[in-house]
Amino acid sequence: ENRPDSNYYGIQELHNTWTNIAYILVALILCMRQTPKLYQIEDSRRRMISMVLFGFYCWAILMTGITSWWFHATLLFVAQKSDEFFENCAILSVFYMSRKPLCLASIYWTVVHCGILFVGVFTVQNLFCEVHLVVMVLCGLFNLRMRIAELTHGSAVKNEIEQHAMVCAGSFAIGGSAWLLDMFA
């Protein structure tokens, strides 16, 4: 590989390495900005469940940044698998946060699903992570669509959430297309 960013002072993929700072910053900013809003949830049980799942989400995003940085700096297989594991954990936590009703089972199933995910990512070499990620994003978008349908028709909140959902779906389509091109082209 004769790319200009290859092996810059021992860093294998310099530009792919430093761009992971964004994950770390997003995780820290999300945690600082959203955690106070979670304290406003009146139902103490729902507040605790939301805080646990949201805290896990922030941690998974932070670890995605750290392990992706580690992978692109070293190109080690274990670092790649760690990166894949944590990016899937982030998607899982969003999926279980958006389930209805939000209950202790959401935490339980997040832990169980992450345990199964860990085994799959580190033992199945080919495409396990990628297939799981795509399936979970599609399930998450479907789940989001169901939650949006429950909102009052024509309300400003519903319209705003629908716009954000379209951006999410469009981003997934663009990112998925780029990923497929990268894998098969």
TrEMBL record:
The chain crosses the membrane at residues 20-36, 48-71, 106-124, 131-149, 161-181. It is a multi-pass membrane protein. It is found in: Membrane. InterPro entries: ACER. GO terms for molecular function: hydrolase activity, acting on carbon-nitrogen (but not peptide) bonds, in linear amides; metal ion binding. Its cofactor is Zn(2+). It comes from the Eukaryota. Signal peptide: none annotated. GO terms for biological process: ceramide metabolic process. Keywords: Calcium, Hydrolase, Membrane, Metal-binding, Transmembrane, Transmembrane helix, Zinc. Pfam families: Ceramidase. One of its GO terms (cellular component) is membrane. Zn(2+) binds at residue 72. Ca(2+) binds at residue 13. Belongs to the alkaline ceramidase family. This is Uncharacterized protein. It comes from Lotharella globosa. The lineage of its organism: Eukaryota, Sar, Rhizaria, Cercozoa, Chlorarachniophyceae.
